[in-house]
């Protein structure tokens, strides 16, 4: 394990040094199932993709097995603990305290987050309360940016299979008592054929991608124990997804400012704004894949997110409080053309709205004795959905505004049974408001189409954790957690009919017609475990998650009752080893296993299990310089990503080899 840099401090010469970190985690985190990823996992990931690095988290799941180089962005939301996902994730993802999910749809723009810019990743599985936690049904992932204490300026460039090019640069330097960190990245490549060889036809092509990002972060003191943290970011992402007429892309710009005071009563204030635009095109493909024609052009899906938080941390002897409030606003509209007449798409569809969530939270941590910590927290949210609308051809519908109150809470304890052993337990409830995307935007995957549903109800979870943390050495740790979780009114894509035919909200559908509906529930139970060990220059890490999850459905969703949620695997395992060479060299490898899962809600399209092996090395050649060599999926294992209703299989992450050079200042 490792320590995050200490808070800003005054030196003997009265120079103020700041770190750019948030307030430290509240004492009550000891009662939670919490994992801090070892630094060896954050550096030099063979794929260079942040989402692949996070696959080390027990139970971590994107909706599909592909990463941000070939997936549609709508499948990039994060879920933990096997309750299933769709376009939106069911875990909260924060970068320096700011929610990073798309304000319209809830997916994560992974190309905008450079893995090398992070100093730490802290994961809390299970729902709960706290800032922005409405929506954290299955947990929270906190990404923390590095500063000059934990990283240096540098530049890396590498060339890989299928004309892949990755370039990453960082400029980090102190200015007075503060610092500035600038990160830039470019990734592009010709991509691979995502359709399996046995299913390919004349329409199938490679899947090229082109991605850029630029971020700047400035941190400076505004007093002996106060600092201001300002961040701005821009990113662009374009992908072609295996066919000439199937594409997706995102453009975005984010800005945030955070004030941190570490005085007698620590205070943290935060404000942010997000401007995003999504676009995608879809095709109708002949059964033998010999021809394609346009089916849908979502030419502009603009979205805006605005948020703010104020939090204070007073302490009274053995009692620590955390009290605050936050607000999140999201607005967006999907603009799309459909109804192909042989020449062009002739009809226009527009749908969208806005959502607002205002919440207040209170947490009380009590060190009842040297061995026993008690914690309890509550949160109350007021939500509203307004300006909801849907227009298509000559019809237009304005949906009624809706609002409501949602309580949530968490209570737990941590008991030090021995100097190296802590036993912990927590019970919690949380909720999630459906995204504007789920409420208003239809979508397609191959011949299948899914309609939106403006009447979706908020989701709610109830769960209990029991586990232990064993730390026999400062460099060794083992954590095991058992959990039971029930998620009510979970939003799922429910199969209602089979085409060909014309269906409301989507138009002509050749394959399966689905609609987003609230399932009665998803029930999940399982075990999560992780361990890490450092022996000199050698770092070892392993994690495992077993999840037994079942859907509960009635009415239109009765056919789904008893089935496993789509894309949820029973077993996920990860292990890695890394050996440091000199100051800037290393050699390492990782192996990941994911068991069989199902593409669809009726368990008719199984996706086979796989074992994925990555390896990489940085070989020092001169002061600050190293040659880098890495490989993804070294055995070229078949990773099935999806199966459409006609049986055509798409694949993810084939074998990819990289070679490059890296300079560290």
Automatic annotation (TrEMBL):
The keyword Lipid metabolism does not apply. PROSITE patterns: TONB_DEPENDENT_REC_3 (PS52016). Pfam families: Plug, TonB_dep_Rec_b-barrel. Residues 214-634 form the TonB-dependent receptor-like beta-barrel domain. Coiled coil: none annotated. The keyword Ribosomal protein does not apply. It is found in: Cell outer membrane. Its main location: membrane. Residues 34-140 form the TonB-dependent receptor plug domain. Keywords: Cell outer membrane, Membrane, Receptor, Signal, TonB box, Transmembrane, Transmembrane beta strand, Transport. It is a multi-pass membrane protein. Belongs to the TonB-dependent receptor family. This is TonB-dependent receptor. It comes from Pacificimonas pallii. The lineage of its organism: Bacteria, Pseudomonadati, Pseudomonadota, Alphaproteobacteria, Sphingomonadales.
């Amino acid at each position: 394990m490792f320590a995050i840099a200490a808070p800003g401090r005054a030196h003997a010469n009265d120079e103020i040094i700041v770190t750019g970190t948030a307030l430290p985690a509240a004492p009550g985190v000891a009662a939670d199932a919490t994992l801090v990823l070892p630094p060896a996992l954050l550096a030099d990931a063979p794929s260079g993709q942040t989402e692949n690095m996070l696959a080390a988290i027990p139970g971590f799941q994107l909706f599909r097995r592909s990463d941000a180089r070939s997936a549609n962005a709508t499948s990039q939301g994060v879920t933990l603990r096997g309750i299933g996902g769709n376009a939106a994730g069911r875990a909260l993802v924060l970068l320096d305290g700011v929610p990073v999910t798309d304000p319209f749809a809830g997916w994560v723009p992974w190309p905008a987050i450079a893995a090398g810019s992070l100093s730490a990743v802290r994961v809390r599985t299970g729902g709960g309360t706290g800032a922005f936690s409405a929506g954290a049904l299955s947990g929270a992932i906190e990404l923390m940016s590095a500063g000059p204490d934990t990283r240096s300026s540098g530049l890396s460039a590498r060339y890989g299979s299928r004309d892949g090019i990755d370039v990453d640069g960082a400029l980090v330097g102190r200015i007075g008592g503060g610092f500035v960190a600038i990160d830039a990245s470019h990734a592009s490549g010709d991509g691979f054929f995502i359709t399996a060889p046995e299913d390919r036809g004349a329409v199938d092509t490679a899947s090229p991608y082109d991605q850029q990002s630029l971020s700047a972060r400035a941190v400076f003191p505004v007093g002996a124990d106060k600092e201001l943290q300002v961040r701005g970011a821009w990113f662009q992402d374009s992908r072609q997804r295996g066919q000439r007429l199937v594409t997706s892309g995102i453009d975005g710009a984010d800005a945030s400012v955070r004030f941190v005071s570490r005085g007698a009563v620590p205070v943290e204030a935060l404000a942010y704004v997000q401007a995003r635009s999504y676009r995608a095109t879809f095709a109708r493909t002949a059964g033998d894949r010999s021809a394609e024609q346009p089916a849908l052009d979502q030419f502009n899906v603009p979205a805006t997110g605005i948020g703010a938080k104020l939090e204070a941390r007073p302490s009274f002897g053995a009692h620590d409080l955390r009290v605050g409030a936050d607000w999140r606003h999201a607005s967006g509209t999907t603009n799309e053309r459909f109804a192909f007449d042989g020449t062009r798409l002739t009809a226009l569809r527009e749908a969208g709205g806005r959502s607002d969530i205002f919440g207040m939270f209170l947490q009380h941590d009590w060190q009842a004795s040297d061995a026993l910590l008690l914690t309890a927290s509550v949160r109350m949210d007021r939500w509203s959905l307004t300006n909801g609308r849907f227009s298509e051809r000559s019809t237009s519908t304005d949906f009624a505004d809706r609002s409501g109150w949602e309580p949530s809470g968490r209570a737990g304890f941590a008991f030090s049974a021995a100097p190296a052993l802590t036993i912990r337990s927590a019970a919690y409830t949380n909720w999630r408001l459906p995204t504007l995307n789920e409420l208003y935007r239809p979508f397609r995957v191959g011949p299948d189409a899914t309609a939106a549903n403006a009447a979706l109800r908020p989701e709610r979870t109830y769960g209990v954790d029991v586990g232990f943390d064993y730390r026999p050495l400062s460099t060794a740790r083992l954590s095991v957690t058992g959990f039971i979780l029930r998620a009510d009114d979970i939003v799922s894509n429910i199969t209602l009919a089979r085409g060909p035919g014309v269906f409301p909200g989507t138009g002509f559908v050749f394959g399966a017609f689905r609609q987003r509906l609230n399932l009665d529930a998803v029930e999940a139970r399982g075990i999560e475990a992780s361990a890490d060990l450092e022996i000199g220059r050698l770092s070892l890490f392993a994690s495992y998650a077993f999840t037994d999850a079942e859907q509960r459905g009635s009415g239109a969703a009765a056919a789904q009752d008893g089935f496993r949620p789509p894309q949820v695997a029973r077993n996920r395992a990860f292990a890695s080893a890394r050996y440091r060479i000199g100051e800037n060299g290393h050699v390492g490898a990782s192996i990941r296993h994911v068991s069989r899962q199902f593409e669809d809600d009726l368990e008719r399209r199984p996706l086979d299990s796989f074992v994925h092996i990555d390896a990489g090395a940085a070989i020092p050649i001169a002061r600050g310089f190293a040659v880098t060599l890495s490989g993804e999926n070294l055995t070229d294992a078949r990773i099935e990503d999806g199966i459409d209703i006609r049986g055509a299989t798409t694949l993810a992450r084939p074998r990819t080899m990289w070679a490059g050079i890296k300079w560290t200042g």
